[in-house]
């Protein structure tokens, strides 16, 4: 590296032309201020795959003081990796060709890094604020990583920092940018750089009162990545058991004080005196004053002064342009009459909707939430902040919620003071000389965001993540099973068998089960002792759509699993569409497919039909519970032999611990049992029709409706609804003469496997995979088109020869125990796990 230069400023251009005029003017102003401070600066423009128009623009004579370097990388990260070794500066500051520096950024960024360098810290500096303008507006803080409000879990959903940082040259050489791969769902190189360097001991700080102005155009790398819902590449530092330690500041390194470029000591600058006119300008100031002078009519005038004393007129007008346009409207009166019902906030520190969500009794009372807070709630210790995830964030800080709220509010108000009348706002005015569009961001500046209290959507995601990680005991899981709900009944079912097999081989602490779609406790008998259960549906109840999918994706990645299994989890299926390819880069994904379903019009649907072809390439394998479905999937989709090897039947084992039921001895009438979901699939209507065709027998039905649908028709006199049952063992099987199993479509139902272990004769539907249990000569099976009368005749034949029927049922028991034991299940599971690396 050549010596003698403090700072290299690198502007990267691809197809920009006229938009770069303000960028270059602001950059030259910032460089001039830095040079006046004794900082030597190298100016570089990198033309990366530049268009002819871009090349012509940047090679004009007035830019001759900038060195031009060509590159053919076509990627933001790779071009930076390409250019850094060619620079001379001790520090590197990047600039995109359509963004702007605040005038003080380069000077104060170098000052901050030099000061930390003298203390022995390896540091990377950031502007204190990011100010988005033009196509979108937002203003948010870039805090020091040792800031009391810094929370590393925020990194799961937002990058605290930005690619336009200032870093020692060695930081970029040690941690080059990775290429983005948006089609594969992986992007955000700057985000990865932030996490990677922080994990390596680099200290991230901001330079107070500095700003990067980020222009949002129609197409940017960030907008492309967000539109395609890309993720940052997962890094080990974000594991559930390591993320809390990510922001711990590495101790200073001795022996780093002597440098090639000893800085001249700079006198600390005094903050400017408060501006007599707010930096957002006299026009808006006058509008605020006119609004403050009004007093409109309200239902209860006695509350008006109480509300007005804490009402933020500047905030209300800036956030509500429709009210701002109505000169005759008093904002306070508007809020009291209608604004609160419309979900508007009277001040940045009070969230109308959040308060009503947090305190539903206020919503039920119909009282204005701000009035309630000012007159009752504040004294009672109620929270006011507009973030529903506040309590979880406070718990992560180890603070009472009110203290966390106060810390956030103090930080917000201090930033706002410096924006309205201090040095931060002064920098906005300076840059507006070059690009007036930045001033359109003032409305967002008055609601400046303080991460992780970014906004309610982001804070609620972070809060949900904190709850989920706490429920998982902040411990990784080698194997994760996602299941839709905690299904009733004590049978292990697919998720239980899978958990038992994995726990037996790898230990229970290696396995975690997540219920995703419906809340509820899993029956204790379903999982081995020590296997963790996280009720995602209960812990993230307010998230919907993409935020819900994103939280599941990041939670799974934080667990650092070797493999994730999806067993009927609708949320996981939905999440795979945007995030499955990215997840498959760091874990193996498996789907369990059981059987198709039918719509209420009688047409086929279900996960095997709708999801198999969509996600097969993201999956490492597919497990079914029946040879029938395995063959059907391979045939329907004409799978090549190599792909068909990844579709594996994993037959659920039977439970030999289920005792043989004693034969009934005192039944006055034959007792026929039926149990299951009272849903369309299970053909309860057919069971009732069979009961009508067999009036000499009693039919006893256990179960409940799970999936909705038409109500049950009137019951025949010989049918009794016994209600829900919790465990198969709770059924009075000693009273059962024959078991009836009806179904319109199926896999290999656990109910059949359980009944087959009791020695009770079976009569069931021959659909899907049921024939793999209802063996010829050992049970009776009827085709889908069989009439109730045909079923009745089959049942009569069984009842007429009870000894033979029992003998066949016991032989079926022995056959299934020999074929479907735990060893056979584990062997099939191994074939699945080994089918694709």
Layout of secondary structure:
Layout: E1 5-13, H1 20-36, E2 41-48, H2 52-58, E3 67-71, H3 76-83, E4 89-96, E5 100-101, H4 105-118, E6 123-134, E7 138-141, E8 166-168, H5 169-174, E9 186-187, H6 189-199, E10 203-216, H7 221-227, E11 231-232, H8 282-293, H9 304-310, H10 313-319, H11 321-324, H12 331-339, H13 352-358, H14 360-365, H15 369-377, H16 390-397, H17 401-421, H18 423-432, H19 442-445, H20 456-471, E12 479-483, H21 493-506, E13 511-515, E14 532-535, H22 536-539, H23 545-558, E15 563-567, H24 570-583, E16 588-593, E17 597-598, E18 604-605, H25 607-610, H26 612-615, E19 621-624, H27 627-636, H28 641-644, E20 647-649, E21 671-677, H29 684-693, E22 698-704, E23 719-723, E24 738-741, H30 750-756, E25 762-765, E26 780-782, H31 788-800, H32 802-819, H33 822-834
